[in-house]
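WARN retry 2 of 3 for item q-0093 after timeout on previous attempt; input resubmitted unchanged.
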Amino acid sequence: MSEWWTYTLADVLLFSPQTYYRLFELYNRDIWPLQILALALGAVVAVLVFRGSTRQGRAVSAILAASWLWVAWAFHLHRYATINWAAPWFGAVFAGQAALLIWMGVMRGQLVYRATMSFRTRAGFGLLVFALVMQPLIGHFAGSAWAQVELFGIAPDPTAIATLGVLLTAERVPLTLLVIPVLWCVVSGATLWAMASPLAFIPPLAALAALVLAIVSGNNWFRGRAAPTD
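OK item q-0093 returned
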């Protein structure tokens, strides 16, 4: 028997790239025209992060929570689970992120998003726009058909990256809200790497950028107090 260290990620992949992208194609077909609603909600989020009030913060948190909950139920549990035994666990984690957003952002009103001229918030808004617009376009031009594109609120990767971007625009964000999006970006990057996808670097790079920006903003931001440099 071959030694365990000779195995690569591709050796333990449970599905082929063709099966993976075909799954997205069927998923997008089944839920049409919800993609239009998802794009509209993403545009609403992009506008509201400039408002900087508790009321708008609750609205943004609610949209993000609904997106994570939808992906947990419609994608992970009902589609991805057909080709990956770990998908129900992913779904549970995504539902957990939705619960955190509802508790901290909607019920307690702790999340106030305010895109200012600081480097952190501008970079966060850039990540949000990337997830909403550029990521689907890059996926298409990298070889995916339009029917296979991944959108915010519909697919896990752009939803996680958009959430990281939005959280970077927040005045006060507990570190706990960053953990799940960052971990998902790592898992997704490893999956795409195993499939030899040219886009494998995007989720981990987005997660790394978010973590670095959070750290350089100062420990006060992690604890829920605005960093003095912002």
